[in-house]
Batch of 2 targets.
Target 1
Amino acid sequence: MDSQDLNFEFTWAFNIQVTEKNSGKYTQVTNKELEFIRSMVGPERMSTGESVLELHSKDESFHQRRKPDVVVWPLRTEEISQILKMADERRIPVTPWGAGTSLEGNPIPLEGGILLDLQQMNHVLELRTEDLQVRVEAGVLYKELNQHLSRFGLFFPPDPGASATVGGMVANNASGIRTVKYGATKDFVLSMVVVLPSGEVIRIGTNATKSSSGYDLCRLFVGSEGTLGLVTEVTLRLIGLPAEFMAAVVQFDLIREATDTVIQIMRSGLSPAALEFLDAPTVRVVNQFKKLSLEERPTLFIEFHGASAMGLKEELELVKEICGEHRSLRFDSGIGREKRNRLWEARYGVRESIKVNDPGFHPLVIDTAVPISKYSDLVAWGQKIIEKKGLKGYAFGHAGSGNLHMEILGIPEEKAQWQRVREAEEEIVYFALECGGTATGEHGIGIGKRKFMKKEHGESLLLMKQIKKLLDPNGIMNPGKIFE
Ligand SMILES: Cc1cc2nc3c(=O)[nH]c(=O)nc-3n(C[C@H](O)[C@H](O)[C@H](O)COP(=O)(O)OP(=O)(O)OC[C@H]3O[C@@H](n4cnc5c(N)ncnc54)[C@H](O)[C@@H]3O)c2cc1C
């Protein structure tokens, strides 16, 4: 097995066709370009082998696969700069690749061309413990980074769960379970080195944790999904590892009781480090495949971080009171480190558990986020739509951040059923937008959410397109993403 195979944690046992189609707007990679790339990186850090191209034709979504013409593993910013300069001059598409764990087709090279896999740019370049900052290459896996940082009592909180790279997290503005307290990736990026589509290398941002100097270009590149340039280096702000934690599992009879509790906790001035909602079917699959033994009911996983056990105990008492007011049936807070780790492993394993429970199906993942006061309405609406369409779905999510995931099961080849899945998606996303929310809280637009951009952004979508045109006039960077 090629070492690049290890990028993938799991793939759905599902046959998604690979397309060779392209729009005709771009130039194909020929021997001349391959020779140029070889002169840059040598023969061992590029491949046109079928299995390598196949592995880079898909992410973790159901979207149509497309192979690149060549995969390159650069080691230096300068190599990327030279390759982008050549590609821009010859109108060859370039797609950056982190670990391929996206859920919206974000890194699929829709027009073929050159795929730059950052996996080998995986070094921690500088750790400044005194400033709580680290400078890393973009291909570093965030889990490995956190293992390294833990020896110094530090961590980088955004945690998408999958084995993602820092570059991929920056590009998708990833977040996760701990975002409710600490923030998303955008809140941790201080400066970056970016290679523009022309090959020009720029450094943006500073090492100051606050700045009012000029346009915030870091925020422009965060969430740009590789469509504006390629990030090779990132300086991240870090957090001290909390001295104490306390976790609780709370169960309810009704979904609305659970979600109203979330709203009340967030309004009460408490600051949970995690506040996750799971509906009863989701609890059922994690019980089965992640060895939990919870009652199959609407459930909240809650965690607090702090400096003293006493302070956390007081916070948990207040949470217990709020849960009681919303008729909680069980409040289990005597949770030690081992059980707490199992709970979070189960939560991170929801998608995998659904996959094992429902073989042959492919879920469409809803990733809407709304202002917290609308969370209960969003969850109720989602449940209603799934039922109305006669579909099977699971509801869970980073509730404290107003983020709801629903995995709606379907089979893309079964046209009528898949049509109902897509209609359900649209009804749920449009409801979230009417609540002042977003189509995607953390997975990005990729291919799957492009159709919601106009509705969500209105006239400002034009400005986004103009920015894209300014930075990438030939449209070579990750074409076909974000915009329809
Ligand atoms: C089981 C599972 C659970 C998940 N849970 C979460 C979650 O809780 N929260 C969450 O936010 N996400 C989640 N995800 C989605 C995914 O893990 C994140 O979006 C992650 O940030 C993708 O990182 P990656 O390294 O795999 O990037 P890739 O998927 O390889 O790429 C992502 C995008 O970034 C671009 N890109 C990659 N590297 C660079 C670079 N160096 N410069 C410029 N552009 C680049 C690519 O072109 C692509 O558009 C989950 C995925 C799975 C499979």
Note: The pocket of flavin-adenine dinucleotide is lined by residues 59-60, 95-103, 106-107, 118, 138, 160-162, 164-165, 167-169, 171-172, 174-176, 225-226, 230-231, 351, 442-443, 478 (CB under 6 Å).
Target 2
Amino acid sequence: MQEIKLNKMFMNQNIRSAVLEVLNSGYYVKGPNLRHFEESFRDYIKSKYAIGVSSGTAALFLAYQELNLNPGDEVIVPSHTFIATATPLAFFKAKPVFVDIDPDIYCMDIEKVKRKITPKTKCIVPVHIYGHPVDMDPLLEIAEEKNIEIIEDCCQAHGAEYKGKKVGKLGDIGVFSFFPSKNMTVGGDGGMIVTNNEKYGEELKLRRDHGRKSKYKNELLGLNFRLNEIQAVIGKEQLKFLGEWVEKRRELVTFYNEIFEKYPNVKIPSEKEWAKCSYYVYTIQIENRKSFIEHLSKKKIATGIYYPIPVHKQPIIEEIYGIQPNLPVTEEIVKKIVSLPLSPLLNNEELNRIEVAINEYMGDL
Ligand SMILES: Cc1ncc(COP(=O)(O)O)c(C=O)c1O
């Protein structure tokens, strides 16, 4: 019996041929595929700029650099996220200010964000976690009033929509990751920065390539955060399917919800009326998570925990910034969350195996 993985990467003949073509072309960086991928991503998001970079982490690093963060500047971030939302801040000696989440959608709680704002707050980072958008309107309103920048972390939210608009271009800068488990990938590491801000767009294009406009003239501080041609050509092909895959993911969410509706002790995902969640993962909360995971594992069904240790409790964060204030909601849910396989490539036989395994476990409780 084959393991049912959490995610699967889509591959077709077009991708294989396109990669081979790049290998044979002799152009491995800064070529036409990057340009085409950026253009199609920009059109998909409907932003003015889309700038390919080497990872979601690189995109966050560059976005923070672009804001010109100074030592002591505060940046409000959720703790219930991947650590890369916060760690790049340390390179600019800026301080992450961790905020608790709304327990229904796992995103930052806007009322609690408001309470964390100080004169030193330079930026707020809404993370559209699991593909569910943050409630952006009240956040944008505060940002406007207090002159605070908004960087959207969309690394788990390709194709998610807030009030009918794709996430990424709602704030000042949006960042995406194409790590292989994501809703779309580039067959390795990769990322994208999107923005409608001309200054940011023009500068970020240079910063990801040593800050240069021409080969030997470096005008801005930058590093090598380029996205290579093989990754770009895979991304371009994958993007064509993203809309279809988001719909399929949403169908799978209905499939899971129907199973779990019978078991009121399991908390299933919620979706706000203003949101279109792109469901990077299907996450439930369950008491006694360990035995549920063990049961599924015996049936060769993978599970994941995104994330078991909140960022404010990570040793490196405590080492740099000291012990952080408690975040009761985050600290409670991380004990109970577990994510189940959610790939548009799951077939009926696999779905049936998942359904049987869940019912077996729940029926025995
Ligand atoms: C919310 C979030 N932010 C940032 C990142 C970093 O992206 P990457 O792994 O491409 O560096 C990820 C990726 O896992 C993520 O999920």
Note: Residues 182 and 361 are 28 Å apart (CA to CA).
